């Protein structure tokens, strides 16, 4: 958890005479800091589910990687934190804040009124819209086609696709699964007619399964805002994060992340005339 500079300084005084650790780094591993733990910086523990490339994922060595990791690394460097990334299952992300296991959560999480009751959110750092990955033989060409008796809709448990389906598809059978890949498999194998998730995920999975799936991008709700969650009342960290998000919208941070991780997808989104993740205009 985030420690004050005063506490760290006191700990350093108690450790006088101990062998100093060599080197200093602002890098991060899954659940552990890298570099000099006695460098005098406060530790920022960030929870994310490393299962959603390219936003939150792991590199070939198994270390945290992706857009969210780079973004938080840049934030930590600017504000003088040592960053620790905790890989956390989706349903444990908000509880990690409530139990003081993490200082903030960034995990492609949509800002919703329900979640705002238990955590505080930053200003949006990304925007996303839901789309449908449909089985090629399902006959699904719109969201209305899914709201039919006998239709099965796969959703990731607790996602906004789950929320949308629960509220708006009363005629369909909702199949709730733990992760995105399981939902995709259900559609590919014809066990579900459609899967509701963000456009990028649908685009990537349809491209990976062109013979078995079709993508339906017709908008059926407004764009969703993603935010970074902090514990209720943590105004200091919330203010720093909002300041960094505002700065990132002006200094090209989001353009750099797009070029590094999403250059081809950005071209495709432009061709489809989709709203881009980092387009914050109303």
Give an account of the 3D structure:
The longest helix has 17 residues, at 235-251. Mean pLDDT is 88; it is low at 3-27 and 32-38. The chain has helices at residues 5-14, 67-79, 93-98, 113-116, 143-146, 160-168, 180-188, 199-208, 235-251, 253-261, 263-272, and strands at 28-29, 32-33, 43-48, 57-58, 64-65, 82-87, 104-105, 119-121, 126-128, 130-135, 152-156, 173-177, 194-198, 213-216, 224-226, 229-231. Strands 6-3-7-16-8 form a 5-stranded mixed β-sheet. Strands 12-11-13-10-14 form a 5-stranded mixed β-sheet, sandwiched between helices. Helices cover 36% and strands 21% of the residues. The chain has 282 residues and is α/β, with parallel strands linked by helices.
Short description:
The chain has helices spanning 5-14, 67-79, 93-98, 113-116, 143-146, 160-168, 180-188, 199-208, 235-251, 253-261, 263-272; strands at 28-29, 32-33, 43-48, 57-58, 64-65, 82-87, 104-105, 119-121, 126-128, 130-135, 152-156, 173-177, 194-198, 213-216, 224-226, 229-231. With 282 residues, the protein is of the alpha/beta class. It starts with a helix and ends in a 10-residue tail after the last helix.
Provide the spatial order of strands within the biggest beta sheet: 6-3-7-16-8
- Tertiary shape: globular
**Quick one: how many beta strands?**
16
Element pattern in H and E: HEEEEEHEHEHEEEHEHEHEHEEEHHH
């Amino acid at each position: 958890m985030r420690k004050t500079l005063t506490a760290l300084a006191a700990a350093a005084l108690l450790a006088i005479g101990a062998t100093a650790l060599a080197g200093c780094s602002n890098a991060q591993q899954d659940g552990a800091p890298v570099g000099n733990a006695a460098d005098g910086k406060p530790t920022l523990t960030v929870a994310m589910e490393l299962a959603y490339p390219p936003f939150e994922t792991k590199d070939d060595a198994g270390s945290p990687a992706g857009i969210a990791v780079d973004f938080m690394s840049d934030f930590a460097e600017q504000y003088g934190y040592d960053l620790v990334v905790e890989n956390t299952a989706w349903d444990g992300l908000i509880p990690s804040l409530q139990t003081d296991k993490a200082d903030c959560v960034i995990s492609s999480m949509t800002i919703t009124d329900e979640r705002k009751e238990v955590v505080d959110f930053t200003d949006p750092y990304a925007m996303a819209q839901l789309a449908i990955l449909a089985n090629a033989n399902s006959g699904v060409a719109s969201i209305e086609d899914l709201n039919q008796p006998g239709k099965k809709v796969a959703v990731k448990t607790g996602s906004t696709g789950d929320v949308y389906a629960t509220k708006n598809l009363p005629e369909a059978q909702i199949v709730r699964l733990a992760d995105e890949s399981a939902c995709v498999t259900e559609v590919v194998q014809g066990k579900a007619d459609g899967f509701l998730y963000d456009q990028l995920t649908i685009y990537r999975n349809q491209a990976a399964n062109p013979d078995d799936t079709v993508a339906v991008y017709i908008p059926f709700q407004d764009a969703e805002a993603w935010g970074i969650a902090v514990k209720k009342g943590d105004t200091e960290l919330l203010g720093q994060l909002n300041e960094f998000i505002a700065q990132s919208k002006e200094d090209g941070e989001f353009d750099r992340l797009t070029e590094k991780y999403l250059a081809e997808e950005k071209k495709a989104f432009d061709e489809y005339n989709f709203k881009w993740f980092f387009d914050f205009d109303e």
